[in-house]
Design brief:
The protein is mostly helical. 71% of the residues lie in helices and 0% in strands.
Amino acid sequence: MVYQALGLSNQQLHFFNSNFINALPSFAHVYSLSLLSWWANGKKYGLFSALLWVIINVVFELGQLLNHDQASYFPSLLADYFANGHFSVFDIIATLLGGLAAYLTIIKLKKA
């Protein structure tokens, strides 16, 4: 996944044959960085932290819908990521669920 998105050829596209399992890194990325951002901000702005990482991940996922010509307007590393990446609805769903799970965790931690 990452290898091909960065333009490196002859790499394995997916590690598993399940779209759900392949989307787990998207969930974990949003969940963990939302909590880390919330913690780094003095345990304030929980909703902002979750939404920030959801938006970032969704933008990067949607960027993978661009063709090579459209992606060429971006800096080369980003253009390679967009042009060679593979869009996945499962990654979008995992991103949204990761943001929701992070926000619910933040609410629970604030009550404790």
